[in-house]
Amino acid sequence: MFNDFFSKYPDYNVIEKPSKVVVDSYKDKLPAELIKFWQEYGFGIYMDGYLKIVNPDLYQPVLNEGYDTENNKEIVFAVTGLGDFIVWVGDAIRLVDFRHGNYSIIESGDDMAWFFDMDLTEDGYLSDHFKNKNYSSARVRLGVLEFDECYGYVPLLGMGGSEKAENLQKVKIREHISIIAQMLGKLE
Length: 188
Prior knowledge:
Elements: H1 3-8, E1 13-16, H2 20-26, H3 32-41, E2 43-46, E3 51-53, H4 56-66, E4 75-80, E5 85-88, E6 92-97, E7 102-108, H5 112-119, H6 123-130, H7 135-142, E8 149-153, E9 168-172, H8 173-184
Antiparallel strand pairs: 1-2, 2-3, 3-4, 4-5, 5-6, 6-7, 8-9
Helix pairs in contact: 4-8
């Protein structure tokens, strides 16, 4: 499963394995490949710290606070090192980019293998879709992130902050997204 993904990013840190209750609650809502990934690898840190596969139960309230989901059917399953949420929308994968105040479909269809093995292993794709150019320099300057952290711009980009690597700080993901939602409003 996801051989190309793990060839490019062999190091990962499993934080916890999902409980049977969590798996059962999402097995009919998320693609089977993602559920299998959870069962084999668990929730944890991947892609040299850039990608966190998360328990939706812990991040869904923050997604709902900061983003107007369609009937609350969209499910967050990953968070980037810059605080972007990757959500399943039933037939596609959407990136909710709180930093820039927008969202977009980044993969159509339910082929998680394609998303992990093709999209996430292509540097150009990551740069174009995730706008992650400042992640590496922030990681060198600020150090490795904990599972519940991301790098966040201070001041917020939507409040006039500049998108420079030196303006990134380590922040708690959920609290940071909540602050963005409170200051700038819900993404619609």
